[in-house]
Design goal:
Layout (H helix, E strand, L loop, with lengths): L1 H14 L13 E6 L14 H7 L7 E3 L5 E3 L2 E8 L2 E6 L13 H11 L8 H4 L1 E8 L2 E6 L6 H4 L10 H14 L7 E7 L3 E6 L13 E6 L3 H9 L5 E2 L7 H6 L3 E7 L3 E6 L13 H9 L3 H9 L3 E3 L22 H10 L6 E9 L5 H13 L3 E9 H9 L6 E6 L6 H9 L11 H11 L4 H17 L3 E3 L1 E10 L2 E2 L12 H4 L1 E2 L1
Parallel strand pairs: 1-10, 1-11, 15-16, 15-17
Antiparallel strand pairs: 2-3, 4-5, 5-7, 6-7, 8-9, 9-10, 11-19, 12-19, 13-17, 13-18, 14-19, 20-21
Helix pairs in contact: 9-11, 14-15, 15-16
Length: 508
């Protein structure tokens, strides 16, 4: 009788999908439709949000952020803040990389040093580290060069992922890009470029009940209409960046729900005063002010985004720490714009090139066309160059885009420090506009622990950027994502970060 009962319990466990240790086995397939193809799975090289989210499937940093932005354990099971520049991390024991290499403090040090090599595009999370000391194999002390108010949040960024030292050194950058080896919940199964990236659940993952899904598929579907169609026909379970005008129809369908959040991503038109903009009228601050005053952004938000976006007063967005709500956005004023152009010596306007990625963001091409049309009313003729997104970002990193270009900068911490550094600081590959006074304010705010003082510094920076604009400040949009009802536990995050897919999401 006893043997019969043991056998019955075993059969019931199998039927319920319960593993040997009493945890639920992952089940089913989750397919996510993303708006851009990716060109690398190395999170130290891929700056684009979709590349980073896909890399999160396999790669892990020391910490993670929950839906409310709270810092949680990951590869580090605990940490201690010793002082403003010193942190002690207790690392998880008995964790192995997908290839069997052991995870220790040496892997953390290796990953930090690798991230700072010249060719790396994503240096920022580890950039401020001065040294790593090994107390023992599973206890490390990280010392930063100066105080960093968001250092712990940076340790939750996938660009601070930990690599296996031997396999990464042996395989080189190509292997790290094409076949990433991490400690994460998923292991890369296949990658058909331009189509899909498929991961299988890691059977040796160190946390119980993670992941909940057996097969995770990321499908590149650049056209928004095609993503919606894929959702409606069941080809994908989650479709990212749904155009606002498609939302009402999906909301009426009982098979779907709409998940949304105002994104921390801040959109802008960059003025390039470092390379291609030299010798053009945009070198004059009055021209850049005129472009800000001469673009009817509220009309564009109504027509292109169905009103589902908010104007911003600077690159520090409305849903971020440090935003100054007392500073209004630069007003739409055609007369003032024309006066500024006349004062700058171009009363009849001028012609200038502007680049725009296609399909990278919701309604990006339409937004660029509308901006060009608005600027034509003040005499500025835009030579609009719409291009494939990966080509666009390659030229952006090389500073070879035209004097004006459209882009959006994401923020994974709801704090502008890394966002500003990413596109407005000369240390970044992506910066097109440099001014010493801006750099000094950014550096000061990024190394000040006192939060009230930081707010004052960011408020000052916003006002100075309106006086001498490095950008045409655009908007923050409400991101809409279509989700099939079979998907449980998925929510849209303001930061667009999707690491929770590997922890919280299941399928029926």
């Amino acid at each position: 009788m006893k043997r019969f009962l043991v056998g019955l319990v075993a059969l019931l466990a199998l039927g319920l999908g319960i593993g040997d240790e009493g945890t639920a086995a992952p089940k089913g397939t989750l397919t996510i439709g993303i708006p851009t193809d990716i060109n690398t799975l190395d999170p130290q090289m891929g700056p684009e949000v979709n590349s980073l989210n896909v890399a999160f499937s396999a790669m892990e940093p020391l910490l993670r952020l929950d839906a409310q932005g709270n810092i949680k354990p990951r590869l580090a099971e605990s940490w201690e803040v010793v002082d403003n520049t010193t942190y002690i991390f207790k690392l998880r024991k008995n964790v192995k990389f997908h290839n069997g290499e052991p995870f220790t403090g040496k892997a953390v040090e290796y990953s930090w040093k690798r991230s700072q090599e010249k060719q790396r595009a994503n240096k920022e999370p580890f950039a401020g580290v001065a040294r790593i000391e090994h107390i023992d194999d599973y206890t490390i002390k990280i010392v930063t060069e100066k105080p960093d108010p968001i250092f712990l949040k940076k340790m939750a960024n996938v660009s601070a992922a930990i690599f296996p030292p031997k396999a990464t050194a042996d395989g080189g950058d190509e292997a790290a890009s094409l076949k990433p080896i991490g400690t994460g919940p998923y292991i890369l199964s296949s990658w058909v470029k331009g189509e899909h990236i498929t991961f299988k659940a890691n059977p040796n993952y160190y946390l119980p009940d993670v992941p909940k899904v057996e097969t995770l598929v990321w499908r590149a579907i650049p056209e928004a209409a095609a993503r919606v169609a894929a959702l409606q026909t069941g080809q994908v379970d989650i479709a990212l960046r749904i155009p606002p005008n498609q939302v009402p129809a999906l909301e009426k369908d009982p098979n779907f729900r709409i998940s949304s959040a105002t994104s921390t991503r801040t959109y802008y038109i960059a003025f390039n005063n470092m390379t291609t903009g030299k010798g053009t009228p945009i070198m004059d601050a009055r021209v850049r002010q005129a472009i800000n005053h001469g673009t009817d952004l509220q009309a564009i938000i109504r027509s292109v985004f169905s009103g589902q976006a908010q104007r911003v007063n600077s690159l520090i967005g409305n849903v971020q720490f440090g935003n100054d709500p007392t500073l209004p956005p630069m007003a739409y004023d055609v007369a003032k714009a024309k006066q500024l152009l006349a004062e700058a010596g171009v009363p009849n306007g001028f012609k200038v090139g502007m680049a725009c990625p296609s399909g990278a963001y919701a309604n990006d091409k339409e937004a660029c066309q509308a901006i060009a049309g608005s600027l034509a009313k003040i005499g500025i003729e835009i030579d609009l160059q719409i291009m494939e997104s990966n080509r666009f970002w390659d030229l952006e990193a090389k500073k070879q885009l035209p004097p004006l270009f459209f882009d959006g900068v994401g923020d994974r911490y709801q704090d502008p420090a890394s966002q500003l550094r990413g596109v407005a600081h000369p240390a970044s590959n992506w910066t097109a506009f440099e001014k010493k006074e801006f750099t000094e304010l950014m550096d000061q705010a990024a190394s000040t622990v006192n939060q009230e003082q930081r707010k004052r510094l960011y408020a000052k920076l916003a006002r100075e950027m309106q006086a001498d604009p490095p950008f045409l400040f655009l908007w923050q949009v409400k991101n809409f994502e279509g989700v099939r009802k079979r998907v449980q536990g998925y929510v849209t995050r303001p930061t667009e970060e999707m690491s929770h897919v590997t922890f919280d999401v299941s399928v029926e």
